[in-house]
Amino acid sequence: MPGTATSQAEVKTVSRRGFELLVDGRELFVSFEEFPWFRNASADQIRHVDRPRPHHLRWPDLDVDLTLESIEHPERYPLKSAL
C-alpha cells in the first residue's frame, strides 16, 4: 500500500536531557530543551511512538506529531507555542 512505512521508529534510551530515537538505522537525539512536549512525559509515553508515514512520527499518548526533518534540524523549526 503506498504511503505505508517500511520501518518503524524505536526509542532506545530516555535520560534527564532527552531520548535517543532509532530511525532507518540512524540514531537521533530528541532534546527536552528543543522539544518540551516530552519533558514531563513518562518513559512509557515516550516509547509509544508510531510512524504513520516515512517522514512523520506520532506519539499518540502525548498528542505530539513531528517530522523527521524537525528532529534532525530543530533550528529550522522554532517553537510556536509557550509551555
Task: Please write out the topology.
Layout: E1 9-14, E2 18-23, E3 26-31, H1 43-47, E4 50-53, E5 56-59, E6 64-67, H2 68-72
Antiparallel strand pairs: 1-2, 2-3, 4-5, 5-6
Question: What report would you give on this structure?
Answer:
The chain has 83 residues and is mainly β. The protein has a single domain, classed as NE0471 N-terminal domain-like. The protein is 12% helix and 36% strand. The chain has two helices and six strands; from the N terminus they run E-E-E-H-E-E-E-H. The strands form two sheets. Strands 1-2-3 form a three-stranded antiparallel sheet. Strand 4 and strand 5 form a beta hairpin. The radius of gyration is 12 Å and the shape is globular. The termini are far apart.
Number of helical regions: 2
Counting DSSP E segments of at least 2 residues, the number of strands comes to 6
Considering DSSP H and I runs of 4 or more, what fraction of the residues is helical? 10-25%
In spatial order, strands of the major sheet run 1-2-3
Compute the separation of the termini in Å: 38 Å
Oligomeric state of shown chains: single chain
Strand percentage: 35-45%
The helix/strand order is EEEHEEEH
Show unreliable segments: none
Count of discrete structural domains: 1
CATH architecture term: 2-Layer Sandwich
Choose one word for the global shape: globular
